[in-house]
Design brief:
By secondary structure, the protein is mostly beta strands. The protein contains no helices and 11 strands. The protein has a 4-stranded antiparallel sheet with strand order 1-2-3-4, with no helix packed on it. Strands 5-6-7-8 form a 4-stranded antiparallel sheet, with no helix packed on it. The protein starts with about 30 loop residues before the first strand and ends with a strand.
Length: about 150
């Protein structure tokens, strides 16, 4: 964002290139964004349940993961930039290895209330902890083992 002109400096689609092997539609609304602490990379959580890796230098989508069975509602990157956590409307919380782009663990973190489950996720800046919040009116702390 260019502050003096109040205009974006880069706009791009978070949609991956279409693939014949993909069963999900290419267009999907992003619901959350997280920026990598040291690389020109952002992650976006989408209403089709996917997580997308975005190259913020080139303005393109590098990779898309089918992360959740329900809409992804939140995403966070750990302070070291090695892991990401994502939350979904069905109450699921998933932890990802960013280097290999693989799922490390998944758990039911929140109960669904009126069709919604987990709404937000965040990493602690200095401890190996993930916090998640949900429509069940709970904040849960999860210890991430190395």
């Amino acid at each position: 964002f260019d502050v003096p002109t109040a205009s974006p400096t880069l706009l791009f689609s978070s949609s991956p290139a279409s693939s014949a092997s993909s069963s999900r539609p290419a267009l999907s609304q992003p619901s959350a964004l997280a920026v990598h602490p040291s690389m020109p990379l952002a992650l976006s959580a989408h209403d089709d349940g996917s997580l997308r890796f975005l190259d913020i230098t080139a303005g393109s989508c590098l990779h898309s993961l089918p992360a959740h069975r329900a809409p992804a509602t939140s995403v966070a990157v750990d302070p070291a930039g090695l892991y990401a956590a994502s939350a979904a409307a069905d109450g699921a919380l998933a932890v990802w290895d960013l280097r290999q782009r693989v799922l490390l663990s998944e758990m039911r973190a929140h109960s669904r209330v009126f069709g919604q489950g987990a709404t937000c996720v965040a990493y602690h800046p200095t401890r190996s902890m993930i916090a998640s919040g949900g429509c069940d009116a709970l904040v849960a702390l999860h210890v991430q083992s190395a």
